Amino acid sequence: MKNLCLGAELCPGRPFFSARFRQGSAVRIAAAILALLILTAVPARADFADGLAAYDAGDYEAAYQAWLPLARSGQGDAQAAVADLYLSGLVARSVGPNAQHRNEAAAVWWYQQAARCGHAVAQLNLGELRERGVGARRDRVAGYVWLALAARTGNGWADANRRRLASVLTAPQLAAASRRVEAWSPATDCPR
After folding, report:
1. How many whole angstroms separate alpha carbon 163 and alpha carbon 169?
2. Helix/strand/coil (H, E, C) string of the chain?
3. Rounded mean pLDDT of 80-90?
4. Cβ contacts of residue 186 below 8 Å, gap of 6+?
5. What is the pTM for the complete model shown?
6. If phi over 0 gives left and psi between -120 and 50 gives alpha, with beta otherwise, what is residue 13?
7. How far apart, in whole angstroms, are the C-alpha atoms of residue 71 and residue 84?
8. pLDDT single digits (tens) 141-185
9. What would the mean pLDDT of 95-99 be, rounded to a whole number?
10. How far apart are CA 110 and CA 116, in angstroms?
11. Cα–Cα distance between 161 and 166 in angstroms, integer?
12. What is the rounded CA–CA span in Å between residue 91 and residue 167?
């Protein structure tokens, strides 16, 4: 029977683990880390799906309650969904005079959170809202920037709106907007 060696302390002169074992371990460790990342993402998707089911059933408050924690943690789809609820008036956190404006401002804020991380739908919606002055001061240059960023992802609607808006901007406005588009990069604090 071959002499079994279980480690450096039991087999003097031999490394604790062979190179082949270390290489296999690295692959196994990488696979375990990947599995952990996937498994930790599953509850967030499940929670988002719960919100979507509630939304489809007409229970907008339950959808809001499912999506809000995800939105607060930086999940772009949830941020855009919460913004949609505010913008459409399906949930309202403000009452009294100017309540609609405050809810629109909340929608702009949530779209902004997702858009700055590269969420194309949020960029499109934010661009349209900034162009029209809904929920925030009207700013056609900012509207163009967000529409152009969404159009970069291949969104045809965003591109059509970007072209339409470009036709009403002055040459200096269009130049400034184009510089901002070219200089843009996603925020560095976005969840991956």
Report:
1. 10
2. CCCCCCCCCCCCCCCCCCHHHHHHHHHHHHHHHHHHHHHHHHHHHHHHHHHHHHHHCCCHHHHHHHHHHHHHCCCHHHHHHHHHHHHHCCCCCCCCCCHHHHHHHHHHHHHHHHHCCCCHHHHHHHHHHHHHCCCCCCCHHHHHHHHHHHHHCCCHHHHHHHHHHHCCCCHHHHHHHHHHHHHCCCCCCCCC
3. 95
4. 116, 117, 118
5. 0.75
6. left
7. 12
8. 999 999 999 999 999 999 999 999 999 999 999 999 999 999 999
9. 85
10. 10
11. 8
12. 36
CA angle 86, 73, 79 (to 5 degrees): 25
Residue 7 contacts by C-beta under 8 Å, 6 or more apart in sequence?
16, 17
Give residue 131's pLDDT: 97
The whole-number pLDDT of residue 161 equals 97
pLDDT tens column, 4-28: 444 444 444 544 334 443 444 444 4
Q: Which residue has the tokens 């599995």?
A: 35
| 8 A C-beta contact, residue 101 and residue 136 | no
Measured CA to CA, the distance from residue 122 to residue 113 in angstroms comes to: 9
The answer to whether 143 touches 128, Cβ cutoff 8 Å, is yes
Q: Show the tokens assigned to 114.
A: 């997702």
Angle, CA 174 vertex, CA 172 and CA 177 arms, to 5°: 110
Q: What is the mean pLDDT of residues 111-139?
A: 97
Read off the pLDDT of each residue in 82-99 and give the average, rounded to a whole number.
89
